Every structure is written in structure tokens, then in C-alpha cells.
Amino acid sequence: MNGNDWERVFTLTYAWIEAGHVIFVIFWIAGLFLLPRYYIYHQESPAGSDEERRWIDRERKLRTIILNPSMVLVWIFGVSLATIGHLWGEAWLQAKFLVVLGLSGYHGWMVGYGRKLARGQRPASGTALRLMNELPGIATAIIVILVIVRPF
Prior knowledge:
Layout: H1 3-44, H2 50-84, H3 91-118, H4 126-132, H5 135-148
Helix pairs in contact: 1-2, 1-3, 1-4, 2-3, 3-5
């Protein structure tokens, strides 16, 4: 293979990794929009009811089938892109990294909250959950601005 062939392979590989990153970001954020809404409905169901058990099952499936695998793949693809593209020194990427780290912490908190709900604990109000439901949207807007506009 000559230099042009390697450049083409690199370009195609980078594009596929980038596509995977965007696809799993969409899945992850969609799940993060949905999970707090599930928790709100769960909290509004009678404790110990069949409805509550169905919400517990739905939440578990959302976390294990969509949210957790998507977050892991977002990180794998994202770190790969930053490494391949030699982007770690870019200020916009460092800011994005911090926002994604915060979003990952939010994800972890939401998973932990679901476990509390499954045990019958309901520590947050429906209003608090509704407010927390806005965090993924705010984080997504900041990330898109950092990646597209690259303000610094």
C-alpha cells in the first residue's frame, strides 16, 4: 500500500468510528431523556402494585439494554476519535470531556436512583425529577456548540 492508500484507510476508519460515536450518543441521550420520565411515572404508581413492578422492569431494561451499553460505546468511540485525531490538547475537547464526564456522573446517579426506587425508596420529588430531566438536554446543547462552533 502506498501513502494515498493508507490515507484513504485512515479516513474511512475515522469516519466509521465517528459514525459509531454519533449513533451511540443519540441512543444514550434518548435513554437519559426517557429514564427520569420513567421514574416520575414509577413514583406516581402505588407502592407494591403490579404497575410499580412493571415500571421496575421497564427501567431495568432501559438501563441494561440501551443506556449502559450506549454510554460505554460513546466513551470507547470518543476516546478513539480524540486519540486518532490528536485532539487531546484542544480546549474545546477538554471542555466537552468535562461535560461528558458530568453527564456520565448523572447517568450513574440515575442508575442508583432506580435501584432505590426498586427497593421502595422514593427520596426525590416528582418536581425534582422533572427538573433533572432537563440536564441531558442542556449538556447536549453545550456539547454540540463545543464540537461544531469550537468557541475556544
